[in-house]
Specification:
Largest sheet of chain A: 7 strands, parallel
Distance between the termini of chain A: 25 Å
CATH class of the largest domain in chain A: Alpha Beta
CATH superfamily of the largest domain in chain A: NAD(P)-binding Rossmann-like Domain
Structural class of chain A: alpha/beta
Number of helices of chain A: 13
Bound molecules: NADP nicotinamide-adenine-dinucleotide phosphate
Largest interface: A-B, 68 and 68 residues
Number of domains of chain A: 2
Oligomer: homodimer
Radius of gyration of chain A: 21 Å
Helix content of chain A: 25-40%
CATH topology of the largest domain in chain A: Rossmann fold
Shape of chain A: globular
Chain lengths: 332, 332
Amino acid sequence: MKKIRVMIVGYGNVGRGVRLSLGKNPDMELVGIVSRSPERVGKELPDVPVMAISDVEGWKKAFRPDVAILCGGSKNDLPQQGPEFAKYVNTVDSFDNHSRIPEYFADIDAAAKASGHVSVISTGWDPGIFSLERVLGGAFIPGARAYGFYGLGEKGGLSMGHSDALRTIPGVKDARQFTHAIPEAIERVRRGENPAFEPGDMHTRECFVVLEEGADREAVTKTILSMPGYFAPYKTTVNFVSQQELDEKYKGFPHDGLAIAVGETGDRHAARVEYRCIWGSNPEATANVLVAHARAAARLAGENRSGAFTILDIPPAYFTTLSREELLEHWM
Amino acid sequence: MKKIRVMIVGYGNVGRGVRLSLGKNPDMELVGIVSRSPERVGKELPDVPVMAISDVEGWKKAFRPDVAILCGGSKNDLPQQGPEFAKYVNTVDSFDNHSRIPEYFADIDAAAKASGHVSVISTGWDPGIFSLERVLGGAFIPGARAYGFYGLGEKGGLSMGHSDALRTIPGVKDARQFTHAIPEAIERVRRGENPAFEPGDMHTRECFVVLEEGADREAVTKTILSMPGYFAPYKTTVNFVSQQELDEKYKGFPHDGLAIAVGETGDRHAARVEYRCIWGSNPEATANVLVAHARAAARLAGENRSGAFTILDIPPAYFTTLSREELLEHWM
Ligand SMILES: NC(=O)c1ccc[n+]([C@@H]2O[C@H](COP(=O)([O-])OP(=O)(O)OC[C@H]3O[C@@H](n4cnc5c(N)ncnc54)[C@H](OP(=O)(O)O)[C@@H]3O)[C@@H](O)[C@H]2O)c1
Ligand SMILES: NC(=O)c1ccc[n+]([C@@H]2O[C@H](COP(=O)([O-])OP(=O)(O)OC[C@H]3O[C@@H](n4cnc5c(N)ncnc54)[C@H](OP(=O)(O)O)[C@@H]3O)[C@@H](O)[C@H]2O)c1
């Protein structure tokens, strides 16, 4: 069978995860990587073809991708790269700026429809799998609210966005932020209260901060605790650690979460659905989901579909290599 | 908005659940019930139009259903009713005889394609939601096996099929069977062993049996323990109880389950996904899922699709009443 030719756009944590994931999906092959810093990437991966992202005619000809997996950042890269790449090729991305998804969908949809490509946006685990589970929970238990909790394990879950926010503070040399779900909040949901939470009711935030020499602990703490949106609404703890301690004890990208919906069926019988995921590496897990969606994008494109799609618009069978016969026989 | 006109075919536990569920889904209305025992049903529901299942021209004219939800038994009713009703109307059913699903799919597909109808088969929680979660687990974590466990709670989950099997034994007046997951087996899966289980490694079976007067306890016990398929492969316990005790302590249709897949992403990082559901009433939960699929069936029919579908063939957005705009804005 002809393999699906996948190109990676932007090589950071998720890009790395996509490369590794493609190695475990025998129906796909990595045909090349494009980056704004091709030297950096070429040095890391001497055996993989790497080209400059701007050399559109070059990579089109050299890589002939069926699907491009966009691994740029949601804040600055994807809003520009998404609609741009949708002109040239079928795309998949993990755009996770929740409040901007409608706008991003519209931009990509216009570009992809005009060029006749398929663009699957905002997939990964949240948005992505969790979006799907929330929608299923709401559909199968009418009246139930769907909640997302993060960082249920002992260590909590590393939040990249909040870690980045800490690192913008003057005096902070390095930092990582772990999110913790509040167990009592989960219990209230499980009991079927369907509570109206403020963000601070569901999660706490734990910061590990390495200071620059001579920086003022109290000033940094104050800045963190009063940061609107990021930390002000939450019970936040700030711990100062050495760079070595940060690198050894708080390394990696572990994350985990719970999507949950609780309500009643028919004659006042309790009904509860919970989706739980635990990832040793958040970007690798995101990458795995992106790769499965690349398979779906190729299939949708093969049906001459075009425009923007989310995980909610795709029949689940499109994510697997399994045939209808195999699915009916072994997976139903 | 015009409501989706739903007809119930066959009125037992699931049929009752569908009636109650329709009351909670304002985009649908119950237009009538057809049954092989219309008097029985009419007596239970004096305010609902009920007709004989055999009066095809009659119910077609009186009810004009958009979708028929087939609530007959999987063993004897659906193999006949499914392909028959697919001739007349769009259908949804919860056919759960796993090994016969390929055959059932083919029969219904042929009938529905010939008549131009949509037939969604084998949906509910298992097959149904669990099928979906197994496929997603396998697609997002390549190499992970997907497992289904049932009866994780203290009381276990009531198995209708196994209760029916007990009631066929001479000397048994009434009986109910509760399935229990084996916690150690779940722990092995969680640890990432991806074990090859025999059925008896995953579950135990607990029987509560009311004997007929004068029946022989030991003979009944022996018959149960040696029943191939149903009980012989499992660690099974048999408890003899009075009818009163059965009716009071072991009533209702509670069930629960866990679909789980464990593997690794990229660079040897653990990855685990778990879908857990806990139903106070199994037939009501099944009914809720059937009703959401009736919405999807109506929508697929509106797109002039035809033939057999499973949950794996349907974009998840089709299960909800939410518009694309609402989904993008609040549910991603
Ligand atoms: N939906 C979800 O569940 C989910 C989960 C996790 C992440 N995400 C999204 O995924 C996005 C990417 O995450 P990420 O962790 O991969 O971000 P990242 O490591 O910062 O990479 C983002 C981009 O930055 C550039 N870059 C990376 N390392 C660099 C370096 N050393 N020097 C210069 N440039 C470098 C790369 O572009 P060039 O190669 O072009 O330089 C890369 O595409 C996030 O913004 C987030 O929105 C979504
Ligand atoms: N996929 C899943 O997750 C899932 C879960 C649960 C159940 N199921 C399936 O759903 C099917 C139906 O389950 P159920 O619990 O609703 O079965 P049930 O109560 O035995 O009803 C099955 C049929 O029996 C007839 N019936 C019911 N009560 C009767 C009575 N008192 N006297 C005479 N006839 C009666 C009804 O047909 P008439 O009205 O025509 O007489 C009804 O359609 C099961 O076979 C199972 O396969 C699937």
